[in-house]
Specification:
Keywords: Repeat, WD repeat. Residues 36-57 are annotated as: Disordered. Residues 37-55 have a biased composition (Low complexity). WD repeats lie at residues 177-218, 219-250, 321-350. The N and C termini lie far apart (56 Å). The longest helix is centred in the C-terminal third of the chain and has 10 residues, at 430-439. Helices cover 4% and strands 48% of the residues. Strands 1-9-8-7-6 form a five-stranded antiparallel beta sheet, with no helix packed on it. With 445 residues, the chain is mainly β. 41% of the residues are buried. It has a single domain (2-9, 43-282, 289-439), classed as Methylamine Dehydrogenase, Chain H (7 Propeller).
């Protein structure tokens, strides 16, 4: 394992301003030009220069009336595609085919080094607190403890799952429990129970007890590749999706390590590639009921969504978001926004709005263009010092890693329920469609 220091600013300024908030619909917003020079006053400590090169700035974008975005930085990786991104409160991490994990410090986003594990491509990553989990080409997981020290990242490998030593101490009959036999495609972490979940193309999901460095449960989750996995941190439910076209919900047996299947969600036969969860906590000061939405992106370009019943654990299909021309590869949610990356090289931003009586409507508010290959991975977070601003990182199979700054404005109160960007229509729940039909409003269909 090698750790290298590389000081490279992702951007030199984040002071771009939008002069008018009430923009006319479909207005092109051209931000101030931003340059990304390598600062000579902060030389790299790496013996070999990092193979990152700056890409040309993207063209101006057309935005929704209450949404402005532009690309802050674009970095090109000539020796491999960007396969995974992880974001913590302090850092951004990007994994590539070369096995390097690049890192940047938040919020200034300066390069603070990279980690080289020499274990093949970094196909999936997940960050939690000061821990970063990375999956490598040898079908194993590395756990890193990361922190800032003396203007550089200090990364310490805590453990490897499974360890090489376990090859010698476990019996042959037990190796099926301990080891994945194909690529580990996804990761999720249960903060309360300190359980790490790994999903693999060998169709299995494994649960690892971090404190004991061992696999405590392994089960065949799907008939095809397991493509994504996520955890509801409130109740511990495990969600998985697969190329077999299904989404499954699992629960851990109380007091045990085993998991049981509680529900199968399947709306179409197309492979499901990505999952995202959007939920709110109950507030006694609010009359609104808590919501819980599950989103799944599939190879047919659709994003299906399910809403959880407030009185049970059942998820009901609410509709689908249509707009991508090719498969959806990644999803991420931030509050009432859903971001989707696709094989069509675009990132779409969707907004979910409540229209009364616990009815919700979705609409596409922007299409972010800039990549020249499929968008493989996404990560997003709100900026702590700027209300309404959001930082989005995207990795693509065009060998580039891009950072976007999104500025959101509170929509004006108007008679219309929602405004549509371009020719895209809102995606509505079936109950709302029927309601509008009965009222004779032909605008929604």
């Amino acid at each position: 394992m090698e750790f290298h220091l590389q000081q490279t600013d992702l951007w030199t300024s984040m002071e771009e301003q939008t002069k008018s908030i009430d923009l006319p619909q479909n207005t092109a917003v051209l931000p101030d030009p931003i340059h990304f020079p390598n600062s000579p006053s902060r030389p790299s400590a790496a013996s070999v220069p990092a193979p990152w090169a700056m890409s040309p700035a993207p063209p101006p974008s057309t935005n929704h009336q209450h949404f402005v975005y532009h690309c802050i930085a674009s970095l090109h990786r000539p020796d491999g595609n960007i396969l995974s991104i992880a974001m913590t409160k302090e850092f951004i991490f990007a994994g590539s085919e070369s096995g390097r994990i690049e890192s940047w410090k938040l919020p200034e986003c300066t390069g603070v080094g990279f980690i080289k594990a020499r274990s093949g491509e970094v196909g999936a990553m997940f960050g939690s607190g000061r821990m970063v989990f990375s999956c490598h080409g040898d079908y194993r997981v590395r756990i890193w403890e990361v922190k800032m020290g003396n203007k550089r990242l200090k990364a310490k490998k805590i453990s490897t799952l499974p360890s090489k030593r376990s090859f010698l101490v476990v019996r042959k009959s037990s190796r099926r429990l301990q080891y994945h036999t194909d690529c580990i495609s996804c990761l999720a972490y249960n903060d309360a129970d300190k359980l790490l979940y790994t999903g693999s193309w060998d169709s299995t999901v494994k649960a690892w007890k971090i404190s004991e460095n061992r696999c405590v449960d392994s089960f065949v989750a799907h008939e095809g590749h397991v493509n994504a996995i996520l955890i509801n941190q409130e109740d511990g439910c495990v969600f998985t999706c697969s190329s077999d076209g299904s989404v499954k919900i699992w629960r851990r047996v109380f007091g045990e390590s085993s998991h049981i299947l509680t529900m199968i969600l399947k709306f179409q036969l197309s492979p499901v590639n990505a999952l995202a969860l959007s939920l709110s906590s109950f507030s006694s000061s609010s009359s609104l009921k808590p919501y819980n939405f599950l989103y799944s992106g599939s190879s047919d370009g659709l994003i299906n969504f399910w809403e959880k019943e407030s009185s049970s654990s059942r998820y009901n299909h609410g509709g689908f978001l249509q707009g991508h021309h090719f498969g959806v590869l990644c999803l991420v949610t931030v509050k009432d926004l859903i971001l989707s990356g696709s094989e069509d090289t675009t990132i779409r931003v969707w907004r979910r709005e409540e229209i009364g009586n616990n009815e919700f409507v979705h609409s596409c508010i922007s299409v972010i263009e800039g990549h020249h290959g499929p968008v493989r991975c996404l990560a997003a977070a709100t900026e702590m010092d700027n209300m309404g601003n959001m930082l989005v990182c995207s990795g693509s199979l065009d060998q580039t890693f891009k950072v976007w700054r999104l500025k959101l404005f509170a929509p004006q109160l108007k008679k219309e329920i929602v405004e549509i960007c371009g020719n895209h229509n809102p995606v509505l729940s079936p109950s709302w469609v029927e309601k509008r039909k009965l009222q004779g409003d032909d605008y929604y269909y």
